[in-house]
Amino acid sequence: MSINRKIIHIDMDAFYASVEQRDNPELKGKPVAVGGSSDRGVVAAASYEARKYGVRSALSSRVAKRKCPDLIFVKPRFHRYKEVSNQIREIFFEYTDLVEPLSLDEAYLDVTYAKKGKPSATLIAKEIKQRILEETQLIASAGVSYNKFLAKVASDVNKPNGLFVVTPNEAQAFIDDLEVRKFFGIGKVTAAKLNNMGIWFGRDLKRIDRLELTRLFGKAGNYYYEICRGEDHRQVQPSRERKSVGAEQTFFTDLFEDEELETEMLKIADILWRRYERTKAKAKTLTLKYKYSDFEQHTRSHTVQDYFVSKEQLITESDRLLFSGENFEKGIRLLGLTLSNFIDEQISKPVQLTIKF
Predict the structure, then answer these.
(1) Under 8 Å CB-to-CB from 293, ≥6 apart: which residues?
(2) Catalytic residue selected from 83, 90, 100, 106
(3) Is 24 a domain residue?
């Protein structure tokens, strides 16, 4: 068992619902459910205001409305959740390349050899949480430990906006007192079966030998035997190669003046360039995204002949996109820049060489 690794599990709090509340200030502080409002609909996500009434994901909309008559249903916008998820993921990549997304709203990070920040995984987790809040106005919870199982369980302890650390010295006592229904990898059916056997906590599970657990639960039994002893040898598996890199900012107050827009665009370009440099990619296409105060969204793109080679070039092209085309007739609540169309993706396509005299 390796206790020298530093693993962080980041879990966005009520992610889909929180994005909807952030993008539409009229929903803030109100019980919100993302999903279909018909009687045959299902709740995909619920805000914490809705959860107080017992509204949870996978609950039928009919039951959800009965539990919370004032519940506000919002249609899911998965393309938007993916955009925000990518924005958060870019923050992760500034600290480590070992990022394993589990879904749009959670991921493992191995920061044993972090690229920046303090040597303490706890301090890195705090910094990442703060960065997410500052750049997206969203709240995340974090768990920190020496393996994936403990980090995952720890992130649930103090939700929302939680941070919980399980050190190697504290791990066994933490697991012994943990209800088996809260073990990651043990579902409701298995938990009920264990409860019927008189197994309610980690200390109870530890009394069952490996052979008996594998007889009862197959391969999963071997996993249960190890995790109740604080052992989890799974590595953080990085996600597949990215196809783009971006940065964006949602503003607390709408922007109207060109000077304000250019100032914010320069800040976003600075963040984007740092992320782009780290990827060591060669991008040809720059896309500007902007959203009006009424949530109407537009994009403008430009593709260069070779690829983006300097921050100055990025700023020049960003400025050109910002002030080209139509004039902004309404307040701007969001600006974003994305670099894509990586040269590595174009290998199979013919490339025209240019000779400079």
Answers:
(1) 254, 330, 331, 332, 333
(2) 106
(3) yes
Contacts 24+ apart (CB under 8 A), 32-35: 32/71, 32/72, 32/73, 32/74, 33/61, 33/64, 33/71, 33/72, 33/73, 33/74, 34/73, 34/74, 34/75, 34/76, 35/61, 35/73, 35/74, 35/75, 35/76
Does the pLDDT of residue 242 top 70, yes or no? no
Instruction: State the pLDDT at residue 206.
Output: 95
- 222 is a domain residue: yes
Q: Annotated binding residue at 105?
A: yes
The answer to whether residue 132 sits within a structural domain is: no
Single residue among 227, 255, 273 that ends a domain in this structure: 227
**Residue 206 token pair:** 């530890």
11 appears as a binding residue in the annotation: yes
Dihedral sign for Cα 194, 196, 200, 205, please.
Answer: negative
Q: Is 106 a catalytic residue?
A: yes
Q: What is the CATH number of the domain that holds 212?
A: 1.10.150.20
Containing structural domain, residue 322: 244-346
Residues 253 and 312 in one domain: yes
101-111: per-residue pLDDT in tens?
988 999 999 99
Measured between alpha carbons, how far is 114 from 127 in angstroms, rounded to an integer? 13
Report helix angle 78-93 to 15-23, nearest 10. Answer: 100
Let me know whether 248 and 220 are in one domain. no
What pTM does this model have?
0.72
Residue 61: Cβ within 10 Å count:
20
Q: Is residue 45 part of a domain?
A: yes
Same domain, 260 and 327: yes
If asked whether residues 272 and 298 sit together in one domain, one would say yes
- pLDDT band at residue 352 under the 50/70/90 scheme: very low
